[in-house]
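Cross-posting from the modeling subforum.

Setting up a comparison between two proteins and wanted a second pair of eyes on the formatting. Protein 1 (sequence, then structure tokens):
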Amino acid sequence: MAQTTVFKKVLKDPLGAGGMFIILLAFFVAVFAYLLIPDHTPNANQMNLAIAGKKPGFTVEVLRLQKEVTTESTWWEQLLNGKDLPYREVAVAKTEEGENILKYTEYTGSGDGIEKSIDRDQLYAGDYLVQKKFHLGTDKYGRDLLSRLLLGARISFSVGFVSVFISLIIGIPMGAIAGYYGGFVDKLIMWIINVVWSIPTLLLVIAITLALGKGFWQVFIAVGFTMWVEVARVVRGQILSVKEKEYIQAAHVLGFSDFRIIFKHILPNVLAPVIVISAANFAAAILIESGLSFLGIGAQPPMPSWGGMIKDHYAYLIVDKAYLAIAPGIAIMLLVLSFMMLGNSLRDALDVRKV
């Protein structure tokens, strides 16, 4: 089936098209996050405890004080990692201009902040007094919640892409070899698959993560090594169903190597279910990563992760700031649901039995 035909069928399905749109939008946000978010510092980790836990739409006046920037970064580094700001920010309740000094009262929310003064040469050379608006409010450390939420999409997409890639790299060859050769090779690979399959996924991921250590890259490996069994089983079943077809027998007669028959003649004709299961695995990887971060063994602070954001703020669910935990939860739900809807749409589009 032509790729354009499959794409058209997906677009005609409202759920599939909607899921694809949300995925593409989230991917765009993940790639260009530092160009879109208000907080451009690395990991959107600019803290200000004086304004912690403020509600959406909160506005405060901020005084910028000059500081030295030790490292220069290229535009590419800024796109990937953000940039260190040449100033530090202090939330202020009021300011009073002097001849050579600036007097200000620090913001506390209660109106009884400490009054301080600073020489003008210590102020930021640009706009040293600005109004900042936090569209989704601030978290318990005074960081911009919107910035952390959008930047958190990077973690989910990164884990999804790398984990699915690892699962395909391992699962496709294992399943292909088992299905094509059969016999003892098939029994051995299926034994390995069944052993891995029998272990609860989250438990195996936790064990691998603890063995490799806590961190971002460890999650990639842990999730990827637990997903290959599904890919291998699907590929094995598909190859078993087509390896006796006439065109495969013709390839044998022509003297083609097993490697060429498997990877050039068989696999291209059985990739449709692999594509569908990859979409489901992508969604599962996002959920697993969120669960690991919630447990504290996934992406480590200050790296923004949706699961980590829920962990930091789940206690707020019983007070009037439940949105701090609900917002990342909704982000996880939307992205996982989008991949599942796209996967279902691809399954229908790739099904040759449907007209």
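Protein 2 (same layout):
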Amino acid sequence: MTQRRTLLTGALATAGLVAVVPAWAQALVRTSFGPTTTDISTGHAGHSSLPQALGYWREEGLQSEVFGIAGNTAGLQLISAGNIDFISIVGEELMQAQVRGIPLRAVYMHARQPISRIVVTKASGIASLAELKGKAVGMPVLGPSPYAAAMFKEAGIDMQKDIRLVATGTGAPALLALRRGDIAGWISWDTAVAGLENRGMEFTEFRPGYFNELFGNAVIAREEMIRDRPQLVVGMCRAIAKAVHFGLANPDAAIRIHWRAYPQTKPQGGDEARLLEEARRVFLARFNSYALNGVANYGESLPAQWKRVADQMKEAGELPQDFDPARAYTNQFVEQINAWDRSAVEAQARGWTGN
């Protein structure tokens, strides 16, 4: 049962939100989306439970299955092999994949701020990144983290040589490692950090001075998909945009919908009001970065942000100097992705009754 619920359609059928009727299912185009995490929390509702449960994907003629993927590397392997159609991934990983010859491109800017976080416990007394030199630092899954590498470099630390990286997973294992002092800091993402805060952890977060010049993750697709099936790309992303707008208009409704779709994400027992408050912390940790800050359209990439990230990576030796960041994304679908009535979605969100 647990394994089956990593697939959203199975979870929805279990929760009774969608009746899987062969008559309509056969008429829909089958596609797939992969968040690059197996912890599909309320913060991931915009590209998992909401577009499915609210019927947004179905309105686009799509039957989309959502698979939790264990990390960026696995996600890139799956999409490059054609085993999944879309994944969400940070821009740094995408550009490095392009250098390796993997024909992928961002079709939808999702998180408009970095989703990565570097934190230490307040109890540790650590007041700067420089104090982590020579110490063990945890990560959910060992792998490249250009965001963290650039921050450590700014602090005079070589991330690969001056600290010991430890794979911790998320949730309880990471919590235990932090509480026991097995790791002095944690490199993770926003929703995972918020989840540990709900378990009583108090963190100090370090951010670079250029934090607001960066971005988080994007929805990416293979070049052949962009070329040969543009309406599939538009449908996938338009449903996500509507789901994000719904969630921003009524976070509590979005959380309850997600709990019904993914029952295992709702903590068992306890006061309902407290559970909702904690879920809201995780939800807003990600959804706040989805908001239209400085742009008019969902999914729109800003060239200056891509250039800023690419220049940072070039300086760190992670991209060749002649790499053109404009090849990493496209805004060709933005107008179509935003061709829907925002006021109607807002009214739907405000009027949601739980049925």
